[in-house]
């Protein structure tokens, strides 16, 4: 009986801690607005905080397969060169100012933009989404599962210069 009580209290404490954590683990799959992280950057656009919505892997697959979305990898160029989600474009979040001009022509304001990075603990995709929003793009989502969740579910990965 005591073990059951201790287990129940541990579960309640863990879920409560996760709920108040700055980067919680995704216990329940749902669309969650990503709160603005303050990393010394201005999170305001036209005086309003920039909030970005998350999507799950099923929604990601649907949007990509329907041709309605463009995937943007927020990881570094080195990480991108080791593998990325099929069809993704590299735009490292921390090199945005330098690289944006190179990929700007590929971005279409009519398409849904989906940013991702390495895993659920990585915030680069959220930072990149905010930067794209401030650059005039409106239809932006973050796939928080990132490359880790994608590969754990046995989905294909592209590698640059790989023979087909």
Concise account of the structure shown:
By secondary structure, this protein is an alpha/beta fold.
Description:
The chain is α/β, with parallel strands linked by helices. It has a single domain, classed as 3-Layer(aba) Sandwich (Oxidized Rhodanese, domain 1), CATH 3.40.250.10. It contains six helices and eight strands, in the order αββββαβαβαβαβα. The strands form two sheets. It has a six-stranded mixed beta sheet with strand order 1-4-8-7-5-6, with helices on both faces. Helix 3 links the parallel strand 5 and strand 6. The longest helix is centred in the N-terminal third of the chain and has 19 residues. The protein is elongated. The N and C termini lie far apart (60 Å). 24% of the residues are buried.
Strand content: 15-25%
Number of domains as seen in the coordinates: 1
Strand elements, count: 8
Order of helices and strands: HEEEEHEHEHEHEH
User: Which ranges are low-confidence, i.e. pLDDT below 50, for 5 or more consecutive residues?
Assistant: 28-47
**What is the level-2 CATH architecture name?**
3-Layer(aba) Sandwich
- Determine the CATH superfamily: Rhodanese-like domain
């Amino acid at each position: 009986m005591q073990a059951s009580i201790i287990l129940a209290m541990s579960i309640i404490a863990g879920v409560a801690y996760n709920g108040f954590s700055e980067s919680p683990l995704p216990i329940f799959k749902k669309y969650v607005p990503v709160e603005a992280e303050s990393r010394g950057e201005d999170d305001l656009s036209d005086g309003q905080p920039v909030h970005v919505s998350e999507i799950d892997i099923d929604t990601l697959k649907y949007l990509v397969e329907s041709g309605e979305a463009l995937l943007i990898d927020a990881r570094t160029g080195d990480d991108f060169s080791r593998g990325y989600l099929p069809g993704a474009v590299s735009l490292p979040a921390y090199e945005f100012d330098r690289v944006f001009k190179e990929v700007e022509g590929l971005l279409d304001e009519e398409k849904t933009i989906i940013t991702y990075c390495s895993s659920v603990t990585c915030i680069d995709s959220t930072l990149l989404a905010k930067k794209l929003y401030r650059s005039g793009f409106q239809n932006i989502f973050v796939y928080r599962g990132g490359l880790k969740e994608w590969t754990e579910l046995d989905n294909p990965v592209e590698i640059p210069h790989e023979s087909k």
